Amino acid sequence: QVQLQESGPGLVKTSETLSLTCTVSGVSFSSYTWSWVRQPPGKGLEWIGSISKSGGADYNPSLEGRVTISLDTSRSQFSLNLRSMAPADTAVYYCASCVHWWCLPHAFNKWGQGTMVAVSS
Amino acid sequence: EIVLTQSPGSLSLSPGERGTLSCRASQSVSGNSLAWYQQKPGQAPRLLIYGASSRAPDIPHRFRGSGSGTDFTLTINRVEPEDFAVYYCQQYGSSRLTFGGGTKVEIK
C-alpha cells in the first residue's frame, strides 16, 4: 500500500525558511516524480514544484527563487525548502505523486494527508 | 503558464440530479493532460479523472470527463450525498502545472 507522509514544523516565523519532508513507502521511490502542492485556508490548490527521479526540478514561477525541492533516495524521502516565509505562505502543504503508468506524468493519484503550516511574526 | 478557469464557482444540486462542471484553459492543453479531483473538508484531494476522460480506479461510473483542447467538462450523473464537495481541474500537459479555482457542489 503506497503511503506518503509529510513532516515538519507547524509554525514558522516571518522571513525564516520552511523545511518539510515527505516520506514514501510501499512503492519504488526511484521510479517516479514527486511533487508539493499547497492550499491556503479556505482557498484552492497551488502547485509548488516537482522533482523527477533523476533529480531535475520544476517550480511554480511565482515561487521560483525561494523554493528548492530535493531527493534523498536512500531514505525514500523528498524535501521542500521555502525561504523568506511570509503570512501569505500559511497553508496546508501536501506531498503528492502519480505512482502508476496510467496517470503519468502528473495526475496525482497519491497524496499525503497534508500538514498545516502557519507563519507568524 | 496555462490558466484554468472553472465555472460555476458553486453549484446547488438535489440528490439524483445531474451536475455539469466546466474547466476552460487559456491555451490548448497538450495531450489533453487534464485531471479532475474531488476534495472534501479536511481531506486531501482525490483523483477522479485523468487524460480528460479516463476514470481513475474505483471511481464510480457516474463521474464522466469529456472535452479537449481548451474546454473540458466533468459530469456527475445522479448526484449522491457523498458527492457534495469541491472539484478542481488540473492541467499537466506543460512542465508548469496549474489548478483551476474550484467548483463547490452543494446540496440544494
Structure, explained:
The complex is a heterodimer of chains A (121) and B (108). Chain A is mainly beta and 121 residues long. Chain A has no helices and eleven strands. Chain A is globular and about 45 Å long. Helix content of chain B is 0%, strand content 49%. In chain B, β4 and β5 form a beta hairpin. The N and C termini of chain B lie far apart (36 Å).
Oligomer kind = heterodimer
**How many DSSP H or I helices of chain A?**
0
Low-confidence stretches of chain B: none
- Structural category of chain A: mainly beta
Helix-residue proportion of chain A = under 10%
Summarize the structure.
The complex is a heterodimer of chains A (121) and B (108). Chain A is mainly beta and 121 residues long.
Index terms:
heterodimer; A: mainly beta; 7-stranded mixed sheet; 4-stranded antiparallel sheet; 0% helix; globular; B: 108 residues; mainly beta; 49% strand
Topology:
The complex is a heterodimer of chains A (121) and B (108).
Chain A: E1 3-7, E2 11-13, E3 18-25, E4 34-39, E5 46-51, E6 57-59, E7 67-72, E8 77-82, E9 91-97, E10 110-111, E11 115-120
Parallel strand pairs in A: 2-11
Antiparallel strand pairs in A: 1-3, 3-8, 4-5, 4-9, 5-6, 7-8, 9-10, 9-11
Chain B: E1 4-7, E2 10-13, E3 19-25, E4 34-39, E5 46-50, E6 54-55, E7 63-68, E8 71-76, E9 86-91, E10 98-99, E11 103-107
Parallel strand pairs in B: 2-11
Antiparallel strand pairs in B: 1-3, 3-8, 4-5, 4-9, 5-6, 7-8, 9-10, 9-11
